[in-house]
Amino acid sequence: MTQVNSNVEPLLHVENLKQYFKITRTYTTKAVDGISFDIYPGETYGLVGESGSGKSTTGRAIIRLYTPTDGKIIFDGHDIGKKKLSKEDEAYLRQNMQMIFQDPMACLNPRKKVKEIIAQGLEIHHMYKNKEELDEKVYAILDKVGLSREQATRYPQQFSGGQRQRIGIARALIMNPKLVIADEAISALDVSIQAQVVNLMKDLQDEMGITYLFIAHDLSMVKYISDRIGVLHLGYIVETGTTDEIFANPIHPYTKSLLSAIPHPNPIVEKQRTAMTYDKNKEGVDYSKGVIHQLTETHSVLATNEEFEKWSKEKFEI
Q: Is the pLDDT of residue 15 over 70?
């Protein structure tokens, strides 16, 4: 795990990010409602929560697939949260931030060969001198992700799900980005393939010094790959901390409910496991009234003073 040094400038600084979508003339849904977090160079920041909590929307707003409604996004010293980016900032963003998508088949053009798909970013940004260098860069990244250069002339539909995700990873990493947003990158894969892809991502991080924003709902996998974790619910980050802090000392009842849902490999323990339920309306929790309470320098929770006092006294055991 990467040790986070608070004296180092964050690679990504997100402050009060809001992403609203107008559904009808009178109704607007608040997918992300004022979240803030930092990601430091070389670390993996896990963003977890149930479906509909705003995880993917957050990733897409950061990489500017959506135009953020409000808030500040500073990436490697570049302000990319503005309504309209300058050509220089947009070019820097596209070259240095990449995304691995959830469905490896839907995001690969079935009419293009693997070689063409992977090389597309380099061609758009003219990041090669000649065709020979372009080919060598493609073959080198294929080797890194465990595919052979002979497979470069095949089409996406000729590969398995795990292989297609490796192609998606290769397409992202060939740009040598500083930040990779992995949006549910393993959820569409078989369990055995999930472990292979996550191990590949960890190995490439060690080798290339990549920083990850790892978006997922599987807490057991997030625990394995992440240095720090942010727990997102209904557009709010309700708790954040190091992986050890979140798993050993969860404070927010939503975090506890997610942890209680993790299956245990021991069948005897699993039989005794009771999953906790959390309903913010029944508990009378209003996230908009909460303030950030710091437990440690890295561990914080969103709560009112009364909620924080109550939740802090409640013990939790996995």
A: yes
In which domain, by residue range, is 115 found? Answer: 12-313
Residue in this structure with the two tokens 């220089």, named with its chain if needed? 88
Per-residue pLDDT band for 2 (boundaries 50, 70, 90) equals low
In a domain, 318, yes or no: no
Task: Provide the CATH number for the domain around residue 161.
Answer: 3.40.50.300
Token code pair at residue 274: 């009771």
- On the 0-12 / 13-18 / 19+ scale of CB atoms within 10 A, 132 is exposed
Query: Please, is 7 exposed, middle or buried when counting C-beta atoms within 10 Å of its C-beta (0-12, 13-18, 19+)?
Result: exposed
Write the DSSP string, the chain.
-PPP-TTSPPSEEEEEEEEEEE-SSS-EEEEEEEEEEEE-TT-EEEEE--TTSSHHHHHHHHTTSS--SEEEEEETTEE--SSS--HHHHHHHHHHEEEE-S-TTTTS-TTS-HHHHHHHHHHHTT--SSHHHHHHHHHHHHHHTT--GGGGGS-GGGS-HHHHHHHHHHHHHTT--SEEEEESTTTTS-HHHHHHHHHHHHHHHHHH--EEEEEES-HHHHHHH-SEEEEEETTEEEEEEEHHHHHHS--SHHHHHHHHTSPPSSHHHHHH-------TTTTT--GGG-EEEESSSS-EEEE-HHHHHHHHHS----
Plot region of 234 (φ>0 → left; ψ -120 to 50 → alpha; else → beta): left
Per the structure, the count of domains in the chain is 1
The residue-averaged pLDDT of 184-201 equals 81
Would you place residue 39 in the very low, low, confident or very high pLDDT band (cuts 50, 70, 90)?
A: very high
> How much is the pTM?
0.90
CA distance 5 to 26: 46
